[in-house]
Amino acid sequence: MAALLEAIAIKRKMFFELEDTPFHCLDVEISTPTARGGQTLVRIKMRNLLTRAVFDKTFKAGDKFKEPDLALAPASYLYSDGDGSHFMDQETYETHTLGPDLLGDALDYLTEGLIVQIQKFNGNPIGLQMPTQVELAVTYTEPGARGDTASGNVTKPAKLETGIEIKVPLFIKEGEKVKVSTETGEFAGRA
Fold first, then answer.
1. Which superkingdom, per the lineage (predicted)?
2. For the chain, how many structural domains are there in total?
3. Domain containing residue 185
4. pLDDT 10s digits, 91-136
């Protein structure tokens, strides 16, 4: 049987199961009453891993949750089509198809062969965990003009191979590879 977690023990970035649904704790706030006999309450900002919905809920400190049967499996991105995005499990060589609702903005960073982590709940894929940074090629950007830095504007737009557009420094040229943060969608350096 899975271990039980008390609400007071839930910390940021932990996973727990409530009513047979896995949740990810985004933030936690503990309020202890000043009056005697008052109950300690735990307010948790959580994301439902099946629906991706985010909401706050308050629990008593002693409320118990199960640890969810979550597993991460390395997989490589193959391609996307009308059915969804296809990934090959690197351990079992099974192909998993995830719909756009499970991917979020991950499609902006996926390139063929990229290794990601597929999150599974009770053996079924429910989401994707991206690397913190990915390398993408610049397909189009204006050449940086000398003297542009005088205005304090030291970035320019660049279109990347996946179709997203980010701001890059003036010295980046077409065809170069850049590192992009998958959390913020911002330029993180030259590749």
1. Bacteria
2. 3
3. 133-190
4. 899 999 998 888 878 889 999 999 999 999 988 888 888 899 999 9
| Cβ atoms of residues 114 and 128 within 8 Å | no
Assign 67 to helix, strand or coil.
coil
Global confidence as pTM: 0.74
Note the pLDDT of residue 2: 55
**How many C-beta atoms surround the C-beta of residue 168 within 10 A?**
22
141 in the same domain as 168? yes
The residues facing 86 across adjacent strands are: 79, 97
- pLDDT tens column, 144-161: 766 555 555 678 899 999
Q: How far is CA 22 from CA 1, 40, 148, 171, in A?
A: 16, 24, 50, 45
Any idea what the CATH number is for the domain that residue 177 is in?
Answer: 2.40.50.140
DSSP letter for 39, please. Answer: P
Interatomic CA distance for residues 175 and 73, integer angstroms: 32
99: DSSP letter:
-
